[in-house]
Amino acid sequence: MKNGVYCVQKLSKNEIFEIELLEKRYNKNKNIFFKLYPGLLEDDNTVHILHKENGVLISYMSLNCFDHKEAEAMAIFDSDKSIFINMFKMVTEKAKENGWDKVLIIIDRNDTFLINLVKELGLTFSFSEYRMNFDETKFNSSFTSNIVIQDATIEYLEKNYFGKAPNFLEIKEMDAFAITNIKLALLHDEIIGKARVEQNNGIIGIYGLILNPKHRGKGLGREILNCIIRDIMKTNYKKLYLEVEVENTVALNLYKSTGFYIQNTFDYYEYLV
Predict the structure, then answer these.
(1) Are 22 and 60 contacting, i.e. CB atoms less than 8 angstroms apart?
(2) Among 134, 139, 151, 258, which residue is least crowded by beta carbons within 10 Å?
(3) Helix pair angle (81-98, 112-120), 10° resolution
(4) pLDDT beyond 80 at 159
(5) Which distant-in-sequence residues (6+ apart) come within 8 Å of 266 by Cβ?
(6) CA nearest neighbour of 20 among 207, 260, 206, 201
(7) How many other CB atoms are there within 10 angstroms of residue 55's CB atom?
(8) pLDDT tens digit sequence for 13-60
(9) Can you tell me the distance from the alpha carbon of 132 to that of 262, in angstroms, rounded to the nearest whole number?
(10) For residues 148 and 189, is the Cβ–Cβ distance under 8 A?
C-alpha cells in the first residue's frame, strides 16, 4: 500500500478508479471541475502524481505536453501547502527533464484555495477558457451539407497532398501520432478544415476546430461543427464538450448557437521552468 506523494507513468486500474471518485466528489460537493481530457488517465505519456494518506487518495496532479515546449498540469487538490509544494516540485523537475520551457497549471475559477496557493508560489495568470457542454435538445439537426467528415490518415494525405498536410491545418509532423483523432472536413474533395475529436468511455471532446482562412465568412465553420456533432450523435456517446478562450466571442457565440452551454471557467497560471 503506497502512502505519501509519489509519481508514476502508468496508473493502475485501482488508481484510475480512485481519481475518478475524487473528481466526482469535487464536482458534486464543491462545484469544481477539472481538465481531464478523455483518455488522460490511461495515457502512458502523462506524468501522474498522487498523494495518499492511510491508503486513501487525497490529491492528484497530472502533467503532459502537446507541443514539445509548453506543458499543461492540472490538480485535484485537498491537502496542505507543503504537500502541494512537494507535488509541484515533481512537476517542475519532470518538465526540466523533458526540456519543456513552460508549465501552465489549469484551475477551475471556483477553486479559490488552489488559486491562492499558486499565486503564493509566484505563478502568474495567463488566460482563461470556458468548458462548454453539449445539450442535444438545442441542436438543429435538420441542416443539409455537402461537407464530408473523415479520419485523417497518412495514406490519404500521401495520395492527395504528397505526404504533406496543408499549412493551415497546423499538423507539424506527418506521422500516425500527430494525426491521431484528427477529423478532416472535405468540400468537393478539398480539405477545408479539421478538428481533433478525443473520446474515451463515451466522453467526447472536440478540440482545435480550424477552417482554411480563404473559406472564412461563408458559414463553413458552423457547417463543419454541425457535421461533426451529427456524426457523434449517431454514436452511444454520454457527454460531449469543447473549450474556448473567454475572449474569443466569435467562437463562443458559434458554440452557443449549436447547442453548447458554459459549464465552468478554467484559469491558466504560468510557470517558467
Answers:
(1) yes
(2) 151
(3) 60
(4) no
(5) 33, 35, 106, 107, 108, 109, 128, 129, 130, 131, 243
(6) 201
(7) 9
(8) 999 999 999 999 999 999 999 998 888 999 888 999 999 999 999 999
(9) 4
(10) no
Pairing type for strands 56-65 and 70-76 reads: antiparallel
Q: Sheet with 239-245: list strands edge to edge.
A: 4-8, 47-53, 56-65, 70-76, 102-108, 260-272, 124-134, 239-245, 203-211, 190-200, 182-187, 148-151
Distance CA 206, CA 64 (A): 18
Helix or strand holding residue 265 (H, E) = strand 260-272
258 within 8 A of 139, measured Cβ to Cβ? yes
C-alpha cell at 268: 491558466
**Joined grid coordinates for residue 7:** 509519481
Residue 60, amino acid: Y
Global pTM exceeds 0.85? yes
Spell out the alpha helix ranges (H) of the chain.
13-30, 81-98, 112-120, 154-161, 220-233, 249-257
